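Our consortium's second objective concerns turning raw sequence data into structural hypotheses that experimental partners can test. To show how far this objective has progressed, the report includes one record in full. It was chosen at random from the queue rather than selected for favorable results. The single chain below, 436 residues long, was entered without modification.
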Amino acid sequence: MSRTPIVVVLGRPNVGKSTLVNRIVRRKAAVTNEEPGVTRDRRQFEAEWAGHEFHVVDTGGWEARPKEQLASDIREQAEVAVSGADLVVFVADATTDVTDDDMGIARVLQRSGVPYLLAANKVDSPAIESDLAHLWGLGLGTPIPVSALAGRNAGEFLDLLVGSLPTDLDGDGDPDTIASLAIVGRPNVGKSTLLNRLAGSERVLVSDIPGTTRDPINMVVDIDGEFFEVIDTAGIKRRTKIKDDADYYSVLRAHDVVRKSDVVLFVVDGQRGATHQEQRLAEEIAKTGSGLIILLNKWDDLSEDERLATEDSVADRLAFVDWAPVLRMSAKTGSRTHRLPKYIRTVLEHRRQRIPASEVNRLIRTLQEAHPPPVRKGRRPKILYAVQAETDPPTFVLFVRGGELGTDYIRFIENRIRETYDFTGTPIRIRTRNRH
């Protein structure tokens, strides 16, 4: 089976790589900002042009002489992406002189043997287009003038891109209909370390600096013989901690990932325990209907007293999601992470579980006879019929006559359903329909 080609977008910091990626995929998928270094990990998107489908990988800014470890890690991640590319788009700034970073990238491409295109970005006018002689000095052939921000020459550039894609690539194809797992938590709790542990390699940047991950990082990972799409999200900050547009859009995309995921791996720093912020995050996850597994990370670093304090905080702050399994683990050392695949399969199985209508009605009838709904506004409501209407998450519909059931009685029904059937790891939705 032929696999989908991979196009890697490469360049030094602040030349418009992420803006060009957004132009290629025709939506604001990658975080862009005038501040250099906003993109740090490589991130993959699906794209299509003129009937040709391909994947686009956005990389962090490549620097010839990185001054910090984080910049060095970004460079390494970009070069790893090149090694797995079918085509590289080298983005250069047409409005500035060629730099040592540009020359370094040119040498990397020439040594790699991977096909490439040289995109001369920020060509906003014909005058700039006629003055690209300095880019010929890179030794990479004809610069392709384009303005990623304004869209100038974007169609012509994409025509050249898809025309340069290889065909009949061997591969097993992209697994479809696979479950998606979102890794979520506050900044610096070990989310990227966990993704690398699941992937079995250093696929994403890990740093002690909070906020290293800015965009969600998607990859398909084989976990214990089964493929999953795993998404590492940016650390979700409190509103008062969001300082700029990049932070704002990073958090916005993380929330969007949570809404679309089958299961959320909610990473809690075991050294700090569950705080008010974890409580808010858990509330949002439960509202989305996604499955939930709580991971108490850095567990091996805790004393016995610290472990008890962390468990107490979880029992107190996250009591409303007591249906979510809790795994005590260490992403850094791998301690107990081998148990995670079993937890994931259990949650997915429970999310897809369907209870026959006859059993649901028998249970509701028994509950209603033993504990009738309370009288509200002088009327006692009665449940006429019940059915499980959906899965992912399990959703039950109660047809009611004679008034409203009230949230307290609906919560009572949910608790009895959970006692009767195992719905560990998944929220349950109960909706009512009035019948006259």
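The partners drew two points from this record. Confidence is low (pLDDT under 50) at residues 34-40, 171-176, 205-214. The chain has 13 helices and 15 strands. Both points have been shared with the crystallography group to help prioritize constructs.
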